[in-house]
Design goal:
This protein has eleven helices and seven strands. It has 276 residues and is an alpha/beta fold. It has a seven-stranded mixed sheet with strand order 3-4-5-2-6-1-7, sandwiched between helices. The longest helix is centred in the middle third of the chain and has 17 residues. It is globular. It starts with 12 loop residues before the first strand and ends with a helix. The N terminus is likely disordered.
Amino acid sequence: MGYTLLIIQSPKKITVICGPTSTGKTSLALEMARELNAVILSADSRQIYKFMDIGTGKIPVTGEAAVIKKPDHWIINGVPVYGYDLVTPDQTYSAYDFCLYGRNLINNIVSSGNNLIVVGGTGFYIDSLLGRVTSSNTPPNETLRNELNLLPLSELQTRLKQLSEELFNKIDNKNKVRIIRAIEKLTLPEQKLDIPEFSEDLSFVQVGLKTVNEKMFSTADNWTKVIWEKGLIKETQLLIDKGFETSAPLNGLIYKSAKDYINGVLTESFAIERIQ
């Protein structure tokens, strides 16, 4: 761990750990945070969802983890982790939403004199947080989002196609979250976005993890087996029972495979293989 201690020397120097799935981002961040008495901000577009813990890798599968769930953050092995459980799976959440949340959190953590580590696999979240990309000038509208979330995917597709066939063909038009955001941008007036500035003279050190493909594939295979054994099916069934079966987060590869197993579309071995 000695080499990592050089990365963060004060609360004004923030490490950002990124990289592909199964390169050990979360494990490294937790280890560093314990050494540095730091707080973690998760920048992962799947981990923002409540009730989706096992299939999104909120907890490292290696070793035993002591987890305490607080109203606004988790504590994993004594380390405070923010960015989990921000919305339910049927709610829309954009990179702009994350930028607002993350910047306010960083300002609060830094002003309290604590170290902070950002870790995640969603590059667009990180780019938005650090100001490398500019968010749309159409801020989120919860009233419109709630209305659109009640509509089936087919009706949303029709509505977007009527508004802009060009945009319909450009985006992932089977992703309900992206369709809703596209409709939002097309139907609401642009405004000057109120993005908070960082309150301190901060610097960010980005650490990109990588490994050889064979190791990454092996790690992903083992991770899949562990989450399957540790309750992925039970978690997916709970999400279905709560009424989230058709929500966009449950149509990602991991949860869709689990749903297909529950519904008898896939055998257990084929479901596991597809996730791997």
